[in-house]
Design goal:
Distance between the termini: 37 Å
CATH topology: Four Helix Bundle (Hemerythrin (Met), subunit A)
Signal peptide: 1-24
Keywords: Electron transport, Heme, Iron, Metal-binding, Signal, Transport
Structural class: mainly alpha
CATH architecture: Up-down Bundle
GO molecular function: electron transfer activity; heme binding; iron ion binding
Radius of gyration: 15 Å
Largest sheet: none
Number of helices: 6
Pfam families: Cytochrom_C_2 (PF01322)
CATH superfamily: Cytochrome c/b562
Helix content: over 70%
Number of domains: 1
Number of strands: 0
Shape: elongated
Binding site for heme c: 141, 144-145
Strand content: under 5%
CATH class: Mainly Alpha
Length: 151
């Protein structure tokens, strides 16, 4: 049952990312929201395992890391000039401090890529290994949200 849920989460994340890439030119706000929804799901899954609310599974850990990694690759593309209005949680600081924002996105991409490499094919073997590789990813999320997201 758990594997079915994990597989479903991965499929949804991939579908969301594919849909987002198709929408990016037309509606970057909707695209980045779709990416962030997949990241929120991965963060929720990660948090549940880290807090002991859910048993750790290497496959679930790998699915969460793969979602973070995919987001790290594409997320920065969804903030073109002029996409700072409308129904968005993106803070104006993104466009005011573009270099700072791009540095945060680069930190996410690097941390997620390192986690992906360290997790191997099967995912981190145990909760401590997962914590070691996903911790830096979650820290970049927190850091970016503190500086570049509307409260």
């Amino acid at each position: 049952m758990t594997r079915v849920l994990i597989a479903g989460a991965v499929v949804l994340a991939l579908v969301g990312a594919t849909a987002a890439s198709g929408q990016a030119a037309e509606d970057p706000v909707a695209s980045r929201k779709a990416v962030m929804q997949s990241v929120a799901g991965a963060a929720g899954l990660s948090g549940a395992m880290l807090k002991g609310e859910m048993a750790y599974s290497p496959a679930a850990g790998k699915a969460a890391i793969a979602t973070f990694n995919a987001a790290g690759v594409v997320f920065g593309d969804y903030f073109p000039e002029g996409s700072d209005t409308g129904d968005t949680s993106a803070a104006p600081k993104i466009w005011e401090d573009r270099a700072g924002f791009e540095a945060e996105v680069a930190k996410l991409a690097a941390a997620a890529s390192a986690a992906m490499q360290a997790s191997g094919r099967e995912g981190p073997a145990d909760l401590e290994s997962f914590k070691a590789v996903v911790g830096p990813v979650l820290a970049t999320c927190r850091s970016c949200h503190q500086g570049f997201r509307k409260r």
